[in-house]
Structures are given as structure tokens and as C-alpha cells.
Amino acid sequence: SVAIRDAIAASGILTVEVHLSNIYTREKFRHKSLISPVAKGTILGFGANSYALGLEAILDLLDER
Question: How far is CA 40 from CA 16, 20, 54, in A?
Fold first, then answer.
């Protein structure tokens, strides 16, 4: 959503985009993310484990600060 992307960009909140499935193996319209340009990184394709990996990434990024 454009509104979510704009909110992330305006807030400056550290963001990691997470997708359960690999969006690049799905329908063509799913290949373009509005969030990726304002996210620190993207994790995709690891099923429910994607959430754990996303949290781990956020914690690592916070430790770097």
C-alpha cells in the first residue's frame, strides 16, 4: 500500500520487509514492492520462519546502532 510506504518513510522507523513466500516465483504483479525502497532489507520465501528471520535482522540492525 502506498499509505504504508509513506508512513514508513515519514516515520523513519527501522523496517524489514517480510514475505512468507518468494514473491519472485509468484504472479508478475507481485514482483514489485512499494515497501522495499524504504526498508532496510527484505526477507522472503522461508514460510513462517520468515518472521523469526525478520526479527533477528531487526535485532542485529539495532545492535549496530
Answer: 6, 18, 11
